[in-house]
Amino acid sequence: MKEFLTFTKKEFLHIFRDTWTMMIILVLPLVMMLLFGYAVTTEIRNTNIGILDYSKDETTRSIINRVQESEYFTISNYFNSYDEIDQSFKSSENSLVIVFGENFSENLLHLRKADIQIVADASDPNAAKTLVNYLSNIIGSTLKDLNKTTIENYEIKPELKLLYNPLMKSSYNFVPGVMGFIIILVCAMMTSISIVREKEKGTMELLLASPTSPITIIVSKLIPYFVISLINIITIFLVSYFIMGVPINGSLFWIFILCILYILVSLSLGILISTVSDTQLMALVISAILLLMPSMLLSGMLFNIESMPLILQGIAQAMPAKWFISAIRKLMIMGVDAKYVLHEFGALLLMEVIIIGISLKKFKKRLE
Amino acid sequence: MLGYLVEKEFKQIFRDKLLPKVILLFPFVALILLPYAANFEVENMRLVVVDNDNSSYSKELVGKLTANNSINLISMEPTYNAALDLVHSDKADMVINIPRDFEKDFVIDKKANILVAVNSVNGMKGTMGGMYALSIIKQYQDEKTSEIIGINDNSGVEIKTIYQFNRELDYKFFMVPALMVMILTIISGFLPAFNIVGEKEKGNMEQINVSPVTRPIFILSKLIPYWIIGMVIMTIGFIVARFFYGIIPQGSILTIYLFSFVFTLAVSGMGLILSNYASTYQQVVFMMFFFIMILILMSGLYTPFNSMPEWAQKIGAFSPLTYFIDVMRCVYLKGSKLTDLLPQLFKLLAFVLVINSWAVLSYRKTS
Hints:
The structure holds two protein chains of two kinds.
Chain A: H1 2-17, H2 19-39, E1 47-53, H3 58-69, E2 73-79, H4 83-90, E3 96-100, H5 104-111, E4 113-121, H6 125-146, E5 155-163, H7 171-201, H8 203-209, H9 214-243, H10 252-276, H11 280-297, H12 310-317, H13 320-334, H14 342-367
Parallel strand pairs in A: 1-2, 1-3
Antiparallel strand pairs in A: 3-4
Helix pairs in contact in A: 1-9, 2-7, 2-9, 3-6, 7-9, 7-10, 7-11, 7-13, 9-10, 10-13, 10-14, 13-14
Chain B: H1 2-15, H2 19-37, E1 45-51, H3 56-65, E2 71-76, H4 80-88, E3 94-98, H5 102-109, E4 111-119, H6 123-149, E5 156-164, H7 171-202, H8 204-210, H9 215-245, H10 253-277, H11 281-298, H12 310-316, H13 320-334, H14 342-366
Parallel strand pairs in B: 1-2, 1-3
Antiparallel strand pairs in B: 3-4
């Protein structure tokens, strides 16, 4: 036992002495929360729009005014001819142009038909679609207001209920994602690199030849990372609860158990990676490409898993992060009972057993 | 002298068990998998319907809702609570509750209610799915109205929309050119830094310092191979984009090569700075993760740059990735010429100058 404590202390000292790494580990979750919470957004805002108006009459003017008033658009250019539009797209001056045909008001009045064209820079198709939608709505409602002869309509009145997140806060979605990512980063990647480092330097052989049991050596290496990830998790919880107003609706007990389980799975992954790689570079590459990237992209933090091709959905199932994030979302945000996350717990437990099994087998082989 | 050192580096890279594979495979895998993952579209929303009316109208509406692959009907439940239970256990994303007398209310009272409840933990998915369902309901309402009244009023304004540069509205066309930037950043910016820190950790650095090889030559010999590899990777990127996705640059490929080279100089300088401050692998890896994450997230790769608040855009303006990603998209999709992109070129050149001077200065300090 005393041996174990000494080893653990040594590992702690190693990490704490490295101020740069320590600082980054502790600051990283905060920076990620800041970025996702306040900087990066998938909403489309502040779009520059150009106008090409061949009519310049009352109706077109009122439409232009409405567009200018809306929070989404800023009018950046007034064009005189069609040819100027293309050039403005190419130098990214604006991403949308409204073209009004000639005699707009008159045509609308007499022919009951007038031409509007929206030319969109669709290099970002999502933004283009959304912007065209916004713009069509603005145009439609302006015209409706101008022309008050509406027929009484039949109506289906839908009520839209946004379950669990009525204020549409993006933090509800990314906080679980950030946790899932950080733990993989600290536990799997850092642990594997630190173990492989001993291998690469040759000190691992020395340690293994010492009277200390190999298990003690490995476990004492894991403890500091275990502690650091707990600190990270707690920081994330505190920041999200007190600063970002993310609720903790479910039982803290189960959330805690879940986090511990996930940390253990990630640590075991770290061990597994360290047993298969000979150099730190290899450990880095394996954990970055096979774990970190998929955990970021396939966990549902940024993109919807359901919209991906089946192969990617399959890969996502193999990611511990996916199960953890799904469970923590349910427990923390949706506030459901623990019985609804049995599935996720089961998946994580199964992974843990398999990973430990494989690493033990590999590890024994190495010793022989 | 430089020639020999570069040759040595190349030999070392190719002799490595892992590196050549990573360098070759990474761009392939990243370019083939990532664009399929990076997709904001909402598809396959899992719908549960509670149909208390069971009329021809309600059935028709459900049929309309599930007509394409945005919404899939997974089950019909007798009560709203049973349906909510499926949402709780994450087996469904959306519940539509059709009240009793839905058809009667609509035809006789001209007013019917319907409830759409959608899981919005992921706010964007929730609203997009919800809005989509609402738009279909609205469409259905209009259809039924004109069916009952019997007129088809299509006068008014017709809005024609022209989608330039990406007619099929394929998100992959937008992502693939930008992802090449990310790959180039990792391979040409970060691998040389790992390499240098590796030398430090092994103690080789001390020996180099006492040898007649001057530091600039040593550093150059570390960078040049990765610059060359960077250009090869861009070429692989062009090939994958061309043959796997059918994306052909509308502008000149030479413009892209020019920008790639300038960009490579900038990012390898960034790698150098980090390698100057770090003394162990773990350190340099962590620093890189920290910076690459901020750079990538704020550069507009996945999310629109202009939508970020002003302070964030200001920070994003200090990332060379921001400009190169913009350039790649402009050249690939819009066919922008070098003359359209001069501001970006000058900014990148300024980065090259500042970053590399910093790298040289910080190197002297530590030795």
